[in-house]
Amino acid sequence: MTVVVLLLGYLLVVERFLTPRLARAKWVRRSPRAGVIAWQGLSFSALATLYLGLVAITLPAWQHAVDLPAFIDTCVLLLEHRYLTPLGEAGVTVAFALFLSLTARLVGTALVQSRRTRRARRAHTRHLGLIAERDTQSGFDVVDHCSPMAYCLPGRGGGRVVFTSAALALLDAEQIAAVARHERAHLSGRHHLALLTARVLHAALPRIRTLAVAGRELPVLVEMCADDAVRSPADRLTLATALLSMRGQVPEAALGAVASPGAQRVERLLTPRSSGPRWWNRLAPLLVLVPIAIVTMPAATAAIAPYCPLPAS
Amino acid sequence: MRNLGSLEQEVMQRVWRREGPVTVRQMAEEIGRERSIAYTTVMTVMEHLHGKGLLGRERVGRAYRYEPTASRASYTAQMMEEVLASTEDSSATLMHFVAGISDAERAELERAISEVKARS
Description:
The complex is a heterodimer. By secondary structure, chain A is mostly helical. Chain A is 68% helix and 5% strand. Chain B has helices at residues 4-18, 24-32, 39-51, 72-89, 103-119; strands at residues 22-23, 55-60, 63-68, 95-96, 100-101. Chain B is an alpha+beta fold. In chain B, 60% of the residues lie in helices and 15% in strands. Chain B has a three-stranded antiparallel sheet with strand order 1-3-2. Chains A and B meet through helix 5, strand 3, helix 7, helix 8 and helix 9 of A and helix 1, helix 4, strand 4, strand 5 and helix 5 of B. Strand 5 (248-249) of chain A pairs parallel with strand 5 of chain B.
């Protein structure tokens, strides 16, 4: 019982307190890599809390599902007693159904999204094959097109970096090099996987605020991570000018008081790189351990009793 | 023998370059000037391209005359539309180097950039 209450309380802390704090934290934009890891830690912590909560509720019922040898019967009874909730059989059944449906949603969404992405990518690669010319010196693909664009396409063999002819005409050699380095950082860092994971989690569990906010924040942070692949102040200035040249339109009204992500990135590139986040901010991934600890607590204390055949210390 | 994929690319690019309808025989002859290739291979490839909607064809006598369904430029434009659309979608199919910056911000940022340049 206590377990479920504690897990619920922890989930509320994550949703209502930690998530807004992380969204507002300035260090995240300054050190985007640590920020991405923090969001992933928080997301998986929320997910684990939900999952383990359902498992904890259903735990007492498992001994009926599985035939257990007599000598651990007492141990199981003890555990059952610790995890028992006043929900009764109906409650446990509902929890088990939720557990199954949650698993199905996660697996299903993951399969659907990854297949969709892979198919779109393969189609695009084929299209590129028809119209792009490979520049053997630089290694990127050039597409003859009047609008300046640059992008990377993850895929087998390291993926590809594509520039349109208009982009190559618009940018100077240094800018092209900086943009290429940014795009290659996306590929080598496999950022598309981080984004896919965040999207899957949010799609499978739309009601969990943490996952929704993480899904919004990660694309911007991932761009900043790729920006950081460009290191020297001179190169960062070059990348900033390239960003400005290749900018997309954003209507004023949409922004309000907040700077657009593009402006944030440019400003960031213009300021000298600061030190990393405080050490405690790096501990966010450890938050995944909190729900695990809460759930195993009763089992851990039960083990002290001589009824559970755990290996002698 | 090259795989069909790269052959499809080659045929498509040659068709675009020609700017006019072409029969299988003409295409086979054109490629044949550079290396040996079987007529049936070229025929299969052009049929594939037709099946994929990239080539249209009309019957002339006993042979087909093939033509691209869209010019290279408009095919490219269509593709690039997808790239632009994917940014909104953040589908992570590809990652586009672009950032939305409002007009007001642009002026300010250009000023900041020239300040930094002046300093260095």
